[in-house]
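Methods: example folding runs. The two proteins below were folded one after another, and each record is reproduced exactly as written to the output file, sequence line first and structure-token line second.
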Amino acid sequence: MENLGLNEIRDLFRDFFVSKGHYAGKSASLIPQNDKSLLIINSGMAPLKPYFAGVETPPSKRMTTCQKCIRTGDIDNVGKTARHGTFFEMLGNFSFGDYFKEQSLTWGWEFITEWLKMPKDRVWATVYQDDDEAHDIWVKLGMPEDHIVRLGKDDNFWEIGLGPCGPCSEIFFDRGEKYGCGKPDCKPGCDCDRYIEFWNHVFSQFSKEEDGSYSDLAHKNIDTGMGLERMACIMQGVDSIFDIDTIRHILNAVAEKAGVKYEQGSEQNDISLRIVTDHLRSMVFMISDGILPSNEGRGYVLRRLIRRAARNGMILGIDQDDFLAELADKVIEVSGGAYPELVEKQEYIKKIIRNEESQFSKTLANGLSILNDYMSDMDAKGEKVLAGELAFKLYDTYGFPIELTEEILAENGKTPDMEGFRQSMANQKETARAGQRDTSDEAWKDAGAYSHLPATEFLGYTETEAEAEVQFCGSYDRERKFLIFNRTPFYATSGGQLHDTGIVTAGEAKYHIVDVVKENGIFLHVVDADDSKKMDAVSEGDRVTLKIDSVKRNRISRGHSATHLLQQALRDVLGDHVMQAGSYVDENYLRFDFNHFEAMTGEEIRKVEDIVNAHIDEFLPIQMQEMPIEEAKKMGAMALFGEKYGDIVRVVSMGDYSVEFCGGTHLDNTGKIGAFKITAEYGVASGVRRVEAVTGSQVIQYLDAKAAILEEAASVLKTGEKDLPKRAEQLLQDNRDLEKELKALKADQIAGSVDAIIASAKDVNGVKLITKRFDDTDADQLREMSDAIKEHTDNVAMVFAAVNDGKIILITSVSEDLVSKGYHAGKIIKEVAKVAGGGGGGKAGMAQAGAKDASKLEDAFAKAEELIAVQ
């Protein structure tokens, strides 16, 4: 048996099954597509479920893949054992109604004995207890009969609820007696570590029915799964995934960064090394697939992995804020050949990790300080359980992950009250719900009366005016009524696009439509309050004329078409990770939310504007087509993630530049957008940015408003508009010069009062303690003053407070001779600042803190005296 590297095994598996007529598919994204049952892809067959279910047609009836997978169910055990991990690769070969049991096992035997050259006497198999066919196939292939073990349904029958299911056969490798339990009947199925399962062949041949019975499937399928890392352990003769070539390469880099050696130091060091190594692999692959750190869903999984790895780096003694970003290169070194997207997105991946490390560093410093205070109080009271409301406060107020609180408490022999934590969480949600606006008045009181109607025929893609028949008239809320017609040109609010408004003419009467809502394909046309009072004459069956406000529609369509160009331009400038996270378009402006990890620079904003305007000037034709969803995907049409689409979709393309799934209204040419201008860019949630923009005539209005501001500013500064920058810079420089003069005067004043300040010292326990409040003084001046005092005298400790516009800065300074006696400015200021509602820290000689309550400064000074007295 050869010692094969992980990458070699992956290539051999693919080449073997390609030689057997299999299509080699690329690994799917870790983000499930059109599958809301999964948060993250966790098995080789998960992305292929539509093929097994017959919903989609596979590229071939025979496929082989190596699928990236993440499993987080055992995340708390990762590191504590040498076998748990969150990221792994699953090799698999699949048949969709083509070959079945005999061919699958035959090829399995050929691959492991001829291509991997495993000793046949060390290969075992388990089969379902009633599966004589699988048993006989193994015997026919040459496996000794005493190496075939029959097991029951729990071990060798695969089913999840109703639907396709079937028996399976697992292949094991005998690691030898030294790993066994010593029992004479030890074999696969035993709980000891002698036999390691590495390849499962699932034979989907039945369908489980609602009555519990099993029927034969018309088309039988094969689904196999081989853990790549586990197979590498076998081929390389190692006991742990952390010892195989590629993963050990990463672990060694982590150990070198920490200045420690794996399995040659403390158990805690080994645990932390394994955690950082495993989590590095997961975060690199997750980010490359477009997952960004956030506070929910798969984004929270990523955030938790990064933060857990960062903290364990600190435990290892790594004193570098961006060490994970740097070590990400090691993951890409060993996996970039098989997954070129890692190399393509290398700098982006590192930027995301670096950004999250930086944020966590701030969160951790604050949270750890507070948690340490909590633990000190617990120790003083002899308590082992942290109150649930305190754990929740750490989580809710300071952003400190509850899992991290659990880990740190556990390391100190303590636990949080998780039931209390969950109750605090529930209380907060209930409070939030109670504060929401009561919308019961807006419920559709007559909803049941029109639910039988057919879907409204929408004409708005091509028509702005139409004849229609009234099908229903009902009450929308206390003041307004609504009308339903058999057909309509009015667009109902959806997909981020605002509804149309317009007029309904019924005989001599006209009714103003102010809102249009769609429910299950039925369009409700809401009439304004004044007209609703005069609608008694409208009856079902009446013929009416519907006419939308064309100017408003044109302005909305202009903005909507611009959002399509905007999305593609953002991807061009920022990267392919950019995906729509929400949008809104009305007649006045547009906004577009997208996944991105940091604020756009001014240069990036200008580039996006230039790209959009360039494609406007190209007068690209805008085409709208309905087609089967598979055809649309082949065109490369972008879909809104999480949106459910039918078999037939509408695709909007703008030349060859932008192709998207979209049900909204658009222009017929990009040139009609006129112009595009971004007016704002800001964050709306973790990992989500928002762009606001205007188009066409709104750009002129925006620029006119800017010009008016410039004109007013020029008038106030008594200069021409062209000279405004120069005049503003001159004023700023004048202001800086004046500030320097004031600081110099203040410094002279302070220097002149050093002797007086020293004379005001109070003798406390043989120490000269100086406490003093200063108004309109900054931190630099306080530090300069303390340094000057320490030059003039020794055996001195100072606590100074600067109060400026309600903001308080505290400085604690201790002379070197006192530091040598054990006095510590950082410890002193921590307690002093707490009295005034603040916090901070620092070194033994000098420390700084912020505070909130100026009325408590005298109490804070008294606390300093108390601390010095008991030193």
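Second run, written to the same file directly after the first:
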Amino acid sequence: MGRLRVSMDIGGTFTDVVAYDEQTGGYRVGKRPTTPGELATGVLDALNTVVDPLSGVGFLVHGTTQGLNALLQRRGVRVLLLASAGAADVYHIARGPRSRMYDLQYRKPEPLVPRRDIVPVPGRIDQEGAELTPLDEQVVRTAAARVRAEGFGAVAVSFLFGYANPAHELRAGEILREELGVDFAISLSHQSANEWREYERTSSAVVEAYIGPVVRDYLGGLTRDLAAQEVAAPLHVMQSSGGIISAHSARERPLQTLLSGPVGGTMGGVALAAALGRDNLIYVDMGGTSFDVSLVINGRPDITPEIRLDGLPMLLSAVDIHTVGAGGGSVAWTEAGGLRVGPRSAGAAPGPACYGNGGSEPTVTDANLVLGRIEPGSFACGELTLRPELAEAAITKLGAEFDLGTPEMAEGVCAVANATMAGAIRTITVSRGIEPREFTLVAFGGAGPMHAVFLARELGIGEVVVPRFPGAFSAWGMLQTEIRRDLVEPHFRLDADLDGAAMSARLSAMAGTGLAWLAQEQVPEAARRSTHSADIRYAAQEYTLTVPLLSATEPTEPDFLAAVAQRFAQVHQARYGHANPGAPIEFVALRTTVQGDLGRAAPEQLDPATEPLGPQRQRPVFFDGAWRDTPILQRAALAAGHALTGPAIVLEDTATTVVPPGFTLSVDSLGSLVVRREDQP
């Protein structure tokens, strides 16, 4: 095996690669345009810009957006759903709440499977897991014949109370594989999401079936391409939970890779939080297509047991990321006499007007170029030379609709984009009772550092940190995580009926299953560990909160109920602003997470500055309605301890940092750029 630890992250516009040399402790970063038609081509192109020869790779991890894109763009495979007779419409009935209360044209999200492709299967398990009616195996075989005849790409199986006893689902899976072959895509709900709530569990199984063949084909092809390039290191894939798994395991459980790309930045944030000595951070990742917001609270990623994408719920452990369509490639357009920015993106092809690839619509990147905040010749590691005249023409045409000059229109485009992004930050903080002014804002992505200080100014946040390699920070974060698996089992018990020994035995069994899986993933025994938690609610409530447990044996301790009830009250108070200590509580599910340390890339320390910053070249940059002479600096010239007062533009291969007037910039020992208001110490 080689000495390089390498990560690869596919974005909507660019593919990033970061390589860490375990011998020297140094990093190399590469960026290439994403190739939408054949993503593996862009991955290999980017990899070859950083690593030569490829045989030097000793560890390889990849963040893929294949499953996410297939879901959002509705280009997955056709799925046949097998459901319990008498409850076959659960998937279409869904839930009653309206996500947009005052939208008179509101419609429920369109299901991935139409009713005509749902097969009712006789057979019933009750809520305790006992068989009431045997499975009708002939109906399953008839469904398999329909799959062959009509060309379905996958089958999802979700029977009532499959989480309590999966026997019928397992038998249906056996029959389907007998009829369709062992490699055919089959998703069983208790394997996709072993939890109660029939609709959410069914939705999880359907999504996994829908995206499964797309993810499997992509990972299989990439694995073969890497082997052909003499990469001996096994491929690992980021999971939505922030851990990694082998590509083989990812092909078996493709649902776990749904947020594979975006979570890399959050996990990098966890490592950065420890290095910076700051526990509470807001992470914003602005790329070419989207703007992602996530939190690190008390040094830990904010992980949720359920996510919703395109209106469809999925039960899986995932980093809580809020995404809006506001990236560098977001198109500015008019509607009803007003200016809109995004969510539509110019993407990688044709891209913003300034790319010179045939795009003519104004984008956020074009606006920043017109304002002088982007250096045309050093964009995206120098892979693209931007054309300011094309950006100016696009912005000028838009400005004519509002009777605004070109720079004023460009600043308006950025202001609208900033308002959209600030709203996304408020959604994940203020709406949950979290005060963003008590956090540090960490900005990454190719366009994040360009807008971060403006976002902080709007939200009242006093400090912005731009880490090293911000344009490839998600890829860097993938080198900071561990191999991980999350297990869950329903466990409905009121506190008065709790059997601590039985709960402890179930937690220990779950840990045993997870640790055995880590052994199969080649994790050394000394590097394996497990943690536990429980989903708890007040008795007669509908929804739960996840509460940490100290160990698998904690339920056997005499004061366990009092301790866990107090812990639950604290979590309830933090989430909802109130609690009811002393009220009966109910356990709903047990969760076990196993993790294995495969090593990680260490943050690189910068040498302290030995000389003050010298004179810098200047050029006009547009701020707050006026052109100002602004120093243009190369980040490579900044050493730990350097400081300056804005305005300033800091250039590097993967991003551009904009420091407006009224702010100061300093460089810490990790090479992070720290931006604060001038009146703040």
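Comment on the second run: The chain has a mean pLDDT of 89.
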